[in-house]
């Protein structure tokens, strides 16, 4: 989820690119770079770290030219350093590209290109595109880009320029691109905020679109070259609203980004033809006798889902530890232990210290991490990146569901490798995993969101909340309670539903809303029995049911339907409903959901 800016027109491109990238730095801040065509050659300057590092470099070495492309990076393939920063150029510097997304088959393509004499400078998947375009180029840049893209699988927003052409060629599949239309000038970006200082007339490109930009206009076609009509839309948002994509808050924007984030997590890793999962992990799955999952907060609850999935599918004993307690309880660790640390930022100090403790006793270590190049990734034996992109809202949303999806893939990988999961079972779960982006998009349908908002507002002034779930959705209840506490400041507790009668049932009265996750599962009948215990004590039941379950709807005071999903993937779909319930409750109470009191995005002190 990086940031792209492009410009062609009468202005000096450097100013346009840097100001646009500044508006997109929330999309990536590992490195930044620009390429500018001065009429004779294309000059490239890039720098690791935040955009200010590149700006400082340009203060001493300004670039001239009125055609250029720029990028701010959130690293996927390759460490965040100067070499891996975008743009990437061919060896002769005549073709320069920027790429957002992931090329699934880059390794096969790279090996073929190297066999044909191409020399690579970076570790990125993106550089493959520059060499493919170079190989296909015969005087027409548009045709060369089209030929190159025909060879790749994956997600991309790609922007290309060539020293012999005063034009920018761009294309997208999954990764967003928007054009800005000016008077005698054209702009391009991955999001609207980068362009608002220059124009409010925008063209939103569709999946499979290719566009050629000139000083005086643009042409849009599909990847086969057929012309496409795209409407110019006038944007009324102010700059702050635009940065949030038209949403009121970053948190709501990030809730709606989850189909894209899940696509990024899963893409290139699920292989329908073999029923296998490829996680690019070098650890030996047969060498572990036990697994320890170590995390804090939301990541801890993702780890609890991981515990359930791994034990069910791979039949390995798993324990989940709060990172802040792990090293103080003298844990039993050996060389046959796999310690999995989970962190969005990769900087959480409690989790980092727990990682070091596990390594000290000989454990192999794996990270489920969002931020590439973070402290944890430098100390881990291996890393499973979730690729959720930058998360601005303090209360985690898309990182949580991406972590849960990563654990599903890890459980599938372990189960297939260890022989505890049949090919048929693996194929069934792989198909269910592939459905997740669509199911989450369906969970965000306007009528569903409106219903959750209605229920949230009804109970917004409750002093307390209780969340219940069973099996793989017990952690979903814990996460739902945490979200509500974090942003609405309502006291909320969560329990495995069967535990309610062992104490918490004493809290239930007519003033207590009880949110129950009762979606389709092996334990649904038992969950409904627990619901009856709540109703017998006058508790107000908010029932989350799978689509079509009208039989059990009569047991709830308020019913919220979610898309029907395979039990093993349902925690991802159900978490979206929990997020929305918390969000609309906090909004009804007038809370600042992006910056809840007393909380920080990355906790780097013990």
UniProtKB/TrEMBL annotation:
Q: Which residues form the Glutamine amidotransferase type-2 domain?
A: 2-216
Every SIS domain range = 279-420, 455-596
Tell me the active site. Answer: 2, 601
Return the protein name: Glutamine--fructose-6-phosphate aminotransferase [isomerizing]
PROSITE patterns (UniProt xref):
GATASE_TYPE_2, SIS
Statement: the UniProt record of this protein carries the keyword Cell inner membrane: no
Q: Which organism is it from?
A: Deinococcus aquaticus
Subunit comment:
Homodimer.
Entry-linked SUPFAM superfamilies: N-terminal nucleophile aminohydrolases (Ntn hydrolases) (SSF56235), SIS domain (SSF53697)
Under which main EC class is this enzyme filed? transferase
Function summary? Catalyzes the first step in hexosamine metabolism, converting fructose-6P into glucosamine-6P using glutamine as a nitrogen source.
Major subcellular site: cytoplasm
């Amino acid at each position: 989820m990086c940031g792209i800016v492009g410009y062609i027109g009468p202005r000096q491109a450097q100013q346009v690119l840097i100001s646009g990238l500044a508006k997109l730095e929330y999309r990536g801040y590992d490195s930044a770079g620009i390429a500018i065509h001065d009429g004779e050659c294309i000059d490239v300057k890039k720098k690791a770290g935040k955009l200010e590092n590149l700006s400082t470099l340009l203060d001493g070495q300004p670039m001239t030219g009125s055609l250029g492309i720029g990028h701010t990076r959130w690293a996927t393939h390759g460490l965040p350093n100067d070499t891996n920063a975008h743009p990437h150029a061919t060896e002769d510097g005549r073709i320069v590209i920027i790429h957002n997304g992931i090329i699934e088959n880059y390794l096969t393509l790279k090996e073929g290109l190297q066999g044909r004499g191409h020399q690579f400078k970076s570790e990125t998947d993106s550089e493959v595109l520059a060499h493919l375009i170079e190989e296909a180029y015969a005087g027409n840049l548009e045709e060369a880009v089209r030929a190159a893209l025909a060879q790749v699988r994956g997600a991309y927003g790609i922007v290309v320029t060539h020293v012999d052409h005063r034009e920018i060629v761009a294309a997208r599949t999954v990764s967003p691109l928007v054009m800005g239309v000016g008077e005698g000038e054209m702009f391009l970006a991955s999001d609207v905020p980068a362009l608002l200082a220059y124009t409010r007339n925008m063209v939103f490109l569709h999946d499979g679109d290719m566009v050629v930009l000139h000083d005086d206009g643009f042409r849009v076609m599909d990847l086969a070259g057929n012309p496409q009509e795209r409407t110019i839309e006038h944007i009324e948002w102010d700059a702050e609203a635009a940065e949030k994509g038209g949403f009121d808050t970053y948190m709501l924007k990030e809730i709606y980004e989850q189909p894209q984030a899940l696509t990024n997590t899963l893409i290139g890793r699920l292989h329908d033809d073999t029923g296998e999962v490829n996680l690019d992990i070098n650890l030996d799955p047969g060498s572990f006798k036990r697994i320890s999952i170590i995390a804090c907060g939301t990541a801890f609850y993702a780890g609890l889902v991981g515990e359930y999935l791994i034990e069910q599918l791979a039949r390995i004993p798993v324990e989940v530890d709060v990172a802040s307690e792990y090293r103080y309880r003298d844990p039993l660790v050996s060389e046959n232990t796999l310690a999995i640390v989970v962190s969005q930022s990769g900087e959480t100090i409690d989790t980092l210290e727990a990682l070091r403790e596990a390594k000290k006793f000989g454990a192999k270590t794996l990270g489920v991490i969002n931020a590439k190049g973070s402290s944890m990734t430098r100390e881990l034996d291996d890393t499973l990146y979730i690729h959720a992109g930058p998360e601005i809202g303090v209360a985690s949303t898309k990182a949580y569901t991406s972590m849960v999806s990563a654990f599903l893939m890890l459980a599938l990988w372990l189960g297939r490798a260890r022989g505890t999961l049949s090919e048929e079972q693996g194929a069934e779960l792989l198909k269910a995993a592939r459905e997740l982006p669509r199911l989450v998009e369906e969970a965000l349908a306007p009528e569903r969101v409106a219903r959750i908002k209605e229920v949230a507002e009804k109970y917004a002034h409750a002093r307390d909340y209780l969340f219940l779930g069973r099996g793989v959705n017990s952690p979903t209840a814990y996460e739902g309670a945490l979200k509500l506490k974090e942003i609405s400041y309502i006291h909320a507790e969560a329990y495995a539903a069967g535990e309610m009668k062992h104490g918490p049932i004493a809290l239930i009265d007519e003033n207590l809303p009880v949110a129950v996750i009762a979606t389709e599962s092996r334990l649904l009948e038992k969950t409904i029995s627990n619901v009856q215990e709540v109703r017998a004590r006058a508790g107000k039941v908010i029932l989350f049911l799978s689509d079509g379950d009208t039989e059990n709807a009569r047991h709830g005071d308020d019913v919220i339907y979610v898309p029907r999903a395979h039990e093993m993937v349902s925690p991802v779909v159900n978490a979206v409903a929990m997020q929305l319930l918390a969000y609309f409750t906090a909004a009804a109470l007038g809370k600042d959901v992006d910056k809840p009191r007393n909380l920080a995005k990355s906790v780097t002190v013990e």
